[in-house]
């Protein structure tokens, strides 16, 4: 088995701040994903990466940057945090079939 | 357009009762379908999946789901729920080309003692 680790677990930021979320996986999966989860709206794809140094935009990429410098890690940057924003960001990795999820990073913007 | 709809945002059932959580999908071909469960402050865990073949698929913790092409549905069922089944359940469809998952809005399941 493997595990996906997300850091930090909780992130509190100020309006306009640049914030970075990190994800590590030891499944040796090629593909990794970042999703945003808002209450009552399910999960929406922000970015995904099919291999090291590859980046693909999802449905919600505006306002975010991503980085995949190593196969095992995938970072997401909120380029300018929005006031009163609250969401959970979930990282996932996949083999050819299934996606495996990390525990999430909870973002609160004051 | 591809989409997944879970029409019930919240479902409450009594412990020991049977359960059905509904999921409808829109996809141009036969989809890969999944049910995930999310316990409080945790990530998503896979309950079961459907790729092809027998339309009734078995999952963990005695959950099962039935795929219906004619109804474009993939409803989740359990014969007898336990208080520990309280969680949010997500139905998802896999986009064949991109591999990404398209999620429904989720159904929050509460169990009455």
Structure, described:
The complex is a heterodimer of chains A (110) and B (113). Chain A is built from no helices and eleven strands. By secondary structure, chain A is mainly β. Chain A has a single domain, classed as Immunoglobulins (Immunoglobulin-like). In chain A, strand 5 and strand 6 (56-57) form a beta hairpin. Chain A is globular. The N and C termini of chain A lie far apart (38 Å). The model of chain A has no long low-confidence stretch (mean pLDDT 93). Chain B is mostly beta strands and 113 residues long. Chain B has a single domain (3-112), classed as Immunoglobulin-like, CATH 2.60.40. Chain B has strands at 3-5, 10-14, 19-21, 24-26, 32-38, 44-50, 56-58, 64-68, 73-78, 87-94, 101-103, 107-112. In chain B, strands 2, 5, 6, 10, 11 and 12 form a six-stranded mixed β-sheet that branches. Chain B is globular, with a radius of gyration of 13 Å. The interface between A and B is medium-sized, with 24 and 23 residues.
